[in-house]
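> run fold Inositol monophosphatase family domain protein
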Amino acid sequence: MTRDQMDKLIRSWMEEAAAMIKESFKTTLTIEIKSDRNDLVTNMDKKLNSF
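> ok
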């Protein structure tokens, strides 16, 4: 894979992730506490991590 191809692929991933984040603003987030009350994670965090 050339550098230009890699750049295009990474940019497409970023655009897809940005669209997912923008869409999440229209919904209610589910918030969970990980290790303590200052360590929060949302359902969108989990979705983007698996992306």
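The mean pLDDT is 93.
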